Structures are given as structure tokens and as C-alpha cells.
Sequence to fold (158 residues):
Amino acid sequence: MRKNLFVSTLVMSVVMLTAASMASAADNWVGTWKLNTAKSKYSPGPMPKSQTLKFEATPAGTKLSTEAMGADGTATKGGYTSKFDGKDVPWVGNPDADTASPKRIDDNNYENGWKKGGKPTITSKGMVSVDGKALTVTSTGKNAKGDAVNNVAVYDKQ
Fold:
């Protein structure tokens, strides 16, 4: 009886320790981020007046919601939900993509391939700073109009 109790306690401790370590491994981009226009560079422009990214952990995967105010004052919203496994998912509200294929690299980094009509358009790479206060997204490729894109968008954690 004592041996069974000890083994049960030991097994339960290992399970709890494993669960705790898994919970501490997180995608550090989860949260709300606001575009810092002073630190960002868009080519071709123009840069949006404002943009907010919100990454949320959900049972279906990580949900990205975006809100932006374009340089012309047009408001846009969009987003997708992905397991960050590199598989294509529908992306609503992005003029340069109708699918995204985000892939987790590690706790602070991810890559995302954009496609429009099944054709690759832009590749973006997100990197969270060591202090967790900034998210830098570097995007390269061609937009839906065929223009070369080379953007560095810096977001501040909210």
C-alpha cells in the first residue's frame, strides 16, 4: 500500500512538473502590439497612420486580429487563426494575401508566408526583443500590385 502511494505520488509529481514546464514555454508575441511609426520603415509607402496587432492563444490555435488606419484614413480589420505550424490558413482583411502560413521558430521568432490566389506574395519574419517590449516584423517580397516590398515594422507591447 505504501509503495503504491509513493509511486502514485511520484507519477503525479512528474506529470505536474511536465505540465508546468510546458506552460512556461510560450510564444512571446502573444499579446497586443501597437505600431511605432517613428521606428518603422515602409518601402513602398505610405506607412499606415496606426496599426494594432493582437495575438491570442485559443483552443484552435493562435488568433491574430489586426486593426489599422491607412495613410488615407481608411480603417481596416483582419485576421486569422493558426497553429503556427506552417500550414496555410485563410486570412481576412489583408489586401496582399488571402492565406497565411505562420510557423513558430522558437519562443521569440516566427515566419509567415503570405499568398494571394495561391501565389506567394510576401514573407514576414517576426522577432520579439529580449526584454519582451518590442516586436519587429520584417516583410519582403511583392505586394498584390507587383511592387517590391521591404518593410520593417516595429511594434511596442501594450
Q: What stands out?
A: The chain has a mean pLDDT of 89. The chain has one helix and ten strands.
